[in-house]
Design goal:
Layout lengths: L2 H11 L4 H7 L7 H9 L7 H11 L3 H4 L7 H15 L1 E6 L2 E6 L5 H22 L4 H9 L17 H13 L6
Length: 178
């Protein structure tokens, strides 16, 4: 989720208008709502100092507004919080262990994420059972969704040879340029 979407999410969660938040940031009343709309729709990106001020007014961490990264534990946590907000990711405890699950009833994005995670789970199970090698598993993960064979998310990409053959055949058809 981009920073503009996060600003919009927290602003509406707090019940603030664009004008109110813009004025709280110190923008003139005349242009406060326009300025906030520019950040929310992504036509402008707030600099670090403005992001910090937004976070303070919205009572969130600046990392909650920024596109979260996973290069730090705090960034990872905010990434997970964003997944909760957007895709229905939930945290729960089962047999004394913490688990993450997707609430598929939270909406179509949650249902899609669930399907994608199921496809990942299938590949992980195949690796565990020895049906596929670690190399096959990594190939699937690192090129996802290209090699997803569940049929829902993968895209068919013809080989270069097949692509060249098709182009040559199309050129041979009457009325086509050669």
């Amino acid at each position: 989720m981009a920073i503009g979407e996060r600003i919009h999410f927290f602003r509406t969660l707090r019940g603030m208008t664009q004008k109110y938040l813009g004025m709280a940031l110190g923008f003139p009343e005349k242009s406060a709502d326009v300025r906030l709309a520019q950040y929310e729709n992504g036509s402008r990106t707030p600099k670090a100092d403005l992001t910090a001020a937004l976070a303070q007014i919205l009572e969130v961490s600046p990392q909650a507004l920024a596109v979260p990264d996973i290069d730090s534990y705090v960034g990872l946590m905010h990434t997970l919080f964003t997944l909760e907000d957007r895709y229905g990711l939930k945290i729960c405890e089962c047999d004394g262990e913490i688990h993450l699950r997707v609430d598929v009833f939270q909406g179509k994005d949650a249902a899609r994420l669930h399907e994608m995670l199921c496809a990942w789970g299938e590949q992980a199970a195949k690796l565990k059972s020895g049906e596929i090698s670690k190399e096959d598993y990594d190939r699937w993960r690192y090129r996802y969704p290209e090699f997803d064979t569940t049929g829902h998310w993968h895209k068919v990409i013809p080989s270069q040879g097949l692509s060249d053959l098709l182009v040559d055949e199309l050129k041979k058809q009457p009325g086509k340029e050669k």
